[in-house]
Amino acid sequence: MKRREQILSALIFSLCFTCSGFANEENALVEISLEIPEVDVSPYFRPYVAVWLETDRRQPVATLALWYQEGETMDGGSSGDIWLKDLRQWWRKSGSASSDGQLDAVTGATRKPGVYTIFWDGNDNFGNPVEAGDYLLNFEASREEGGRGYYRQAITLNEEGNFSLQGDVEFGEITISTKAR
Amino acid sequence: MNKPAQYLINLFILPTVILFSSVSSAHSRFVLPTHTSLSGAEPQWVSLDLSISNDFFHPDMAYGGTSDEGDNFFAGLQLQVKDPSGAVYPAQDLVNLGRKSVTAVQIDKDGTYQLRADAPSLLVTTFKTAAGSPGRVFEGDELPEGVTDVAVWRSSNRAETYVTKNSISFDSLVPTGEGIELGEGSHPNDLFAGEDICFQFLMDGEPVAEGHEVMIVRDGTRHRNSRSEIPAITDAEGRVSFQFPEGGFYFIELIIEQEASAGLNYDFDYHTYSATLEVWPE
Fold first, then answer.
1. What is the layout of strands, in order, in the sheet containing A107-108?
2. Alpha-carbon distance B254 to nearest alpha carbon in chain A (angstroms)
């Protein structure tokens, strides 16, 4: 593919991303802010990140975000999906059980260090509303030639709540705000 | 080999028999995979080390394949692959590299593979020599003159591991009903530190008896002063329950040394089962 076409398709993709009915600030049931900290190492590889919801008995409910290297990898591998297993906790139930395409809406490229906001509309990856109640919100990051971070927070869907987690190396501050409908 | 009637021994006088473990090279045998968890659409290789060693997972003696020097006792050993559909086929021939033997398996299906090395079952006769020291001969060899405390053992050894690509599955875990195997319990490719783990052990399809010690030890024994074994003893259903304290490869071994059923051409069973399991940190 020519460079220009690549830019064009990337542009179309990003347009779709912002206008196709994804959760936003207005309709979000859960709003998450998470920081990917700067790590002063060379070479630095952006982490793979997963954010997902489980029942309080740890059954998978929905993946809210999955950032990884889709398509050809730097070393010529056919896809970064061979490293998805390194998001250990996400992979074990949510990731490995997801069928092709099921997570397309929440999947994106790896992110450089910075603070990112995730809005979740309360629907699972099939578009079905998740029942109100107690859940565990999970955060996992895994970085090539780096470490792994895993945090979880108990939340109640459809109740007002504010939570804050402090990561160490792979995550900075994570804040979670749940809303009532 | 005929079993003279006067050598029929029961468990109550087992201490007077030369224990099999005292005359066999009672070293553990392991099958160590490079990977136990794989993701993605493409087929991927897993390489495996097989070795006889008492340090985990530091190889000591080759297990399988042929060598120009030394004995080729295990030359015929094969690593058997049971794929997620339950189909069984041998891995590539083992290559003897002196301290260890190696092979590789291409993992192309989604689900859980069982990779198992069964040493052929053999009959071994133990005895006390005229001078009073313990000895043994293999099936077909003559007993020396003047020996006492003769006992015939059927010995077998199974070493295995598990590898999963994408979702775990259960078809390759279905017991065959032969020898020592895992029964119901935790999936061997879904193990995390700090979680409740349970494994059931079966012998010829039936839960093993209560009170068998199972050895559970983490990789790296060579570089620490204590082996730090996790204590585990089978309950009435042949199960052990415990937690892995941290991530790593773990060696799990159960040895069953018991009186054989009546009417067989041997007195005792000596069966060893081991599994190499990978555990992830929380």
1. A107-108, A60-67, A48-55, A133-142, A148-157
2. 28
The pLDDT tens digits of the residues spanning B202-245 come to 999 999 999 999 999 999 999 999 999 999 999 999 999 999 99
CB contact under 8 A, B192 and A83: no
Closest CA to B249 of B219, B229, B223: B219
| Residues whose CB falls within 8 Å of the CB of residue B59, separated by 6 or more in sequence, listed in order | B49, B51, B53, B99, B100
What ipTM is given for this predicted complex? 0.78
Instruction: Show residues of chain B in contact with A81, CB under 8 Å.
Output: 39-41
* CA dihedral angle for residue A34, residue A38, residue A43, residue A45, rounded to 10 degrees: 10
d(CA B68, CA A172): 58
Whole-Å CA distances, B277 to B131, B159, B187, B252: 44, 11, 10, 8
- CA dist A76 and B167 (Å) reads 25
C-alpha A110/C-alpha A70 separation (Å) is 9
Q: Are A136 and A165 in contact (CB under 8 A)?
A: no
pLDDT tens track for B127-182: 998 888 888 898 888 888 889 889 999 999 999 999 999 999 999 999 999 999 99
Set of chain A residues whose Cβ sits within 8 Å of the Cβ of B166 = 96
Q: pTM score > 0.90 for this model?
A: no
